[in-house]
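[step 3/7] fold_predict: job queued, chain A
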Amino acid sequence: MFLRRAFGLLAPVALAAVLAGCSMFGPQKIKEEAIVPPDTLYQQAITEMDKQNYNTAIGTLTKLQRQHPYSDYTEKAKLMEVFANYRIGRFPEAILAADRYIALYPTSKEVAYVLYLKGNSYFGQIKDITRDQQISQDAIDTYSLIIANYPKSEYVDDAREKLAVGYDQLAGKEMSVGRYYLGQGDYAAAINRFRTVAERYQTSTHIEEALYRLVECNLALGLVSEAQTAAAVLGHNYTGSDWYKKAYALLQKAGVEPKMDANSTLATLKTPKKN
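[step 4/7] structure written:
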């Protein structure tokens, strides 16, 4: 009873003290951000980037866009933001910045460059073939846009080279899964994976092994004609390769030789013949 009464007496006193404290210090003022001219902020960001202080530069560019969203420097700031994030390996941020730039300035002469930085940001995140390869597909899609829409740009040659790496990653993933199924004795599932490589990624570094694995799996299932056709395609395009020699040996062990079956879909494959 005494404690309740004491608390009842103290509560108003405490409240009064709080109110008195508030009036003592007066109303709290929020410090306003100083407005800096856009050209000053832009030059500051350039100086910071020249010194490779990219994180600081990104902050300055953000400030420029916040304080002067409609200035003549805003587009340049957004472009520099893409580059700065890419330069320090902040790839997801660079991709988002690239998308924002392209959405706002779709007809800009810098779009090809922004797409190139975006593609490189995906490329920089590509993981080994045992991991999900969506990033590889995103890189492929972005580089393909550059090649299709800006064929005369200075970024096309590098885009094509990295495009090939991206395709090789996707093919490698299919091969990895195919080998797993093969090891489990699930030949039908393995064939689906190896056929994907043979049909979609014919220029990849995995094409020879994919054709050999098709020989191996089809023989295991008793599909001799398909095995012979896969070996024939392999032999036609890669006569001197070790994979063909191994395929030929497998067929000989089964008492047959490479032979093209015109009715097989494998017979329509146009793998690039090596010199």
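[step 5/7] annotate
Residues 226 and 263 are 10 Å apart (CA to CA).
Residues 1-11, 13-20 have pLDDT under 50 and may be disordered.
exit 0
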